[in-house]
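Chain and conformation:
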Amino acid sequence: MSEFFHLWWSDWASFLRMGRYGVHVWGSVASVVVALAAEQLALKLRARRAQLGAHNAALAATQGESP
């Protein structure tokens, strides 16, 4: 079980370098973080637009107008 917790890197610099593949690894991680943040923003904007559309439709219905 102690092998499971064995550290593969001797220091933080080695960890960040990831065996000379650090640029690719951390670039991929950054890309995923940016994509997830963009998705969250798009979902919030879509929900806000849907709420505004429902509100405008309800307001138009109370005033006797067609949406």
Remarks:
- The two ends are 66 Å apart (CA to CA).
